[in-house]
């Protein structure tokens, strides 16, 4: 690659209307430039973490604040990294809401960590595209192994783990829960349509509760499914979806000629932290051959602690399970862990086999091509991040980290109970007590305690 | 956050069956630990780039090579970064196919760069979740601005730029083309179904050619659209989709009671680098109110050079346009740039409005909430990467970088022509001549020249 030698200095003299013939151009991956700038950015971010708790958590800017600070057009000539970092400091930092601040309590907590960041860096630096095994065997194999590790720590049934399910089940890393729900929903849809004919898509019906995350309705919308049931829950039942409510809704739908295909059960709902009773729901679902997906977006992390594992009791009856490691598991955005019992159901809907991707390894069926387990073709080396988190902290430290949050939440709940202006919103079982309390502290501590 | 002080040493003594009460746990974002490890990873990657050209480009491992090198379970106790990096060196590097090698010519080229990596680092380090404006105004506003910059450099019609379209059009950063196609397809589908009723989904039909990327068929599958036309192309027409072939296919479909909704036209197909004639195709589409998406996944980058801009002549008739900056624009994976003329068509299909995301800024309609332009809810601060690429290299350097590849491709094409064992596959126009030649060198130079 002799032509790609570094020569930034005379590139700006060229005229766009007269392309040069064999001009020497810059080397975009010059190792020494990489080293220099990399160290600068690391120091920039380390300094940011040192002072982040001093910033107002929520950005104070007004809509359209940024345009007046930036030029109208992209620069024609290169600008030094020093000027760019100055602009980040002056114009970008004031415009961000500081998810990495220890005073941040909105939505879900910032779950970035040293290990999560280092894993992301390695993945971005190696910059492999792991759509199939051959395009980077390590990217595929590490993902399968790490998902088996994590599945074991969560005490998922053997059918969800690749190795111990005789390669029928297994885990995959996606970006977000929305993707996990969409992929499994499409798999469930197509499984049913292959039996009853594709023209019956209008008859399909899917189930959640009025507490289910909005991404469920969106996934159904994207998948072309028009019948979405948001079954009513009650405060007296801690806003959990009751099996008999599900059953009566199904009965009514079936009587009307509709065909049930999918239930999205939630462990730790966003608004009320309710936990749907998996065992009873799966029993109902089984009778109607309904695919059960369990969305434990934030609460799933806590299940690595033996004392909280009961939150997902009944998971053995489900078809798929997902949680977001970027929510409460020290993994930088984005990292959604999805396990399925039958990955053929996914690949039947999502696989493609264009001529330019054919290779002996795929044809041998001895390898996984994760492109067929997800929406997109291209994918990063996702597993490095989760691997570094598990190794850098170790499972016991991760458990203690989660426990420390639960302890803080219990303390906070005690404070809330002392204040007559507040009430705990739902009768709590021991398990979601801690999760609800955790959510309380995450969502309200900021305004209650005036910590920012 | 007093409880989060660093105390890695005694955490491993705990027993998982007896949760500690108010134990001090590790600080997952300790700035000095971040600084130390960050510098180590930067050096690790810089060293990797120094020697990457010495490795065999394609990994030489056999399926299931990795399990025997790794433990069966996740570690209970923390491991130092030094041990982890040793394992990366010994067990991961031999298992990757080196997309960053200068000798890599498969699929599309490694498009990582110093600037792309630094942008990704900043985004991962700030770790903001930019689903709506309020969650980090800078993440939204920089994206809108940078996409206006890049749209202007590409000379996209004003209707595709946010500012100059009176805020009707605009750009968004997604992960891959698959997402761009799925989002626009769903928008087109729902626009039609809102007129004719959702029960008519089985009548909808979408169009591409037999050269269109496989992600088009997959997106249609996900969106529940069963009628997908892969219109035949011919070598004599350089494998481009002819407008009269499109028209006769539409005629036949309409006669059979089907309803045309979407055309995926391609500028630079994967297998044969053909360029569909946008102007003629858009004329046909307009007559039938068909949404035209233009997929210029790799070739779009070249259109920043005035001499290659004619590849997308006719784009003014399209509804949406996308290209992948991670393919040929020095941006690390993943970065798909999508522009639309009417972002309301996207948000009508993809918006959600759960109680926990409501806020004054969104309700004022003065801001963009990009969650409603994409499949997922969560999203990273995507624009930093592209902003750093544009600023660090400058538009003129980027043009020269692309031109240097085209020049190499022309040289290579000359060599191919001299060798009687090879023929150029299609009659070439001047514009896709260079793109086809570029693809040739990318895909075949390795085996032809024996460079690895």
From TrEMBL, chains A, B:
Which Pfam family, any one of them, does this sequence belong to?
Pyridoxal_deC
Q: Which residues form the signal peptide?
A: none
Instruction: Give the CC-aspect GO terms.
Output: cytoplasm
UniProt xrefs under PROSITE patterns:
DDC_GAD_HDC_YDC (PS00392)
**Cofactor(s) this protein cannot do without:** pyridoxal 5'-phosphate
Q: Name a single GO biological process.
A: amino acid metabolic process
Q: Which UniProt keywords apply?
A: Decarboxylase, Lyase, Pyridoxal phosphate
Highest taxon, organism lineage: Eukaryota
- The segments labelled Disordered in the record are 1-26
N6-(pyridoxal phosphate)lysine: residues carrying this PTM: 327
- Give one GO term, molecular function aspect: carboxy-lyase activity
- What family does the entry list? Belongs to the group II decarboxylase family.
Q: What is this protein called?
A: Tyrosine decarboxylase
Name the source organism: Arachis hypogaea (Peanut)
């Amino acid at each position: 690659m002799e032509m790609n030698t570094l020569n930034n200095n005379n590139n700006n003299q060229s005229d766009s209307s007269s392309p040069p013939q064999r001009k020497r151009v810059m080397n975009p991956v010059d190792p020494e430039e990489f080293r220099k700038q990399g160290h600068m950015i690391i120091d920039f971010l380390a300094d940011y973490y040192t002072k982040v708790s001093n910033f107002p958590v929520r950005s104070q800017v007004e809509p359209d604040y940024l345009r007046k600070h930036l030029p109208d057009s992209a620069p024609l000539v290169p600008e030094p990294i020093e000027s760019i970092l100055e602009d980040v400091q002056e114009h970008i930092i004031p415009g961000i809401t500081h998810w990495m601040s220890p005073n941040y309590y909105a939505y879900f907590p910032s779950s970035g960590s040293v290990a999560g960041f280092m894993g992301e860096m390695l993945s971005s630096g190696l910059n492999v595209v792991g759509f199939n095994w051959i395009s980077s065997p390590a990217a595929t194999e590490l993902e399968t192994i790490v998902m088996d590790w994590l599945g074991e720590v969560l005490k998922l049934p053997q059918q969800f783990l690749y190795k111990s399910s005789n390669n029928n089940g297994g885990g995959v890393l996606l970006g977000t829960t929305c993707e996990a729900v969409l992929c499994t929903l499409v798999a469930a849809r197509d499984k049913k349509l292959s039996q009853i004919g594709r023209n019956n898509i209008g008859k399909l019906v899917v189930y959640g509760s009025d507490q289910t995350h909005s991404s469920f309705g969106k996934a159904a919308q994207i998948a072309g499914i028009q019948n979405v049931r948001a079954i009513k829950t009650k405060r007296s039942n801690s806003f959990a979806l009751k099996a008999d409510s599900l059953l009566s809704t199904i009965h009514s739908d079936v009587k009307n000629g509709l065909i049930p295909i999918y239930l999205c059960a939630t462990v730790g709902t966003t608004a009320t932290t309710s936990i749907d009773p998996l065992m009873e729901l799966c029993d109902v679902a089984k009778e109607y051959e309904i695919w059960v997906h369990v969305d434990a977006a934030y609460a799933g992390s806590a299940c690595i602690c033996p004392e909280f594992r009961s939150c997902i009791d009944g998971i053995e009856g489900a078809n798929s399970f997902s949680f977001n490691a970027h929510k409460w598991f020290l993994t930088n955005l984005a990292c959604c862990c999805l396990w399925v019992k039958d990955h053929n159901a996914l690949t039947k809907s999502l696989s493609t086999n264009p001529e330019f991707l054919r290779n002996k390894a795929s044809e041998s069926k001895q390898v996984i091509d994760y492109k067929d387990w997800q929406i997109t073709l291209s994918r990063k080396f996702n597993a490095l991040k989760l691997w570094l988190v598990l190794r850098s902290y170790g499972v016991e430290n991760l458990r203690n980290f989660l426990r420390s949050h639960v302890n803080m939440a219990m303390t906070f709940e005690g404070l809330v109970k002392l204040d007559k202006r507040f009430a705990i919103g739902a009768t709590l079982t021991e398990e979601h007590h801690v999760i609800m309390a955790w959510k309380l502290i995450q969502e309200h501590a900021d305004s209650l305690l005036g910590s920012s």
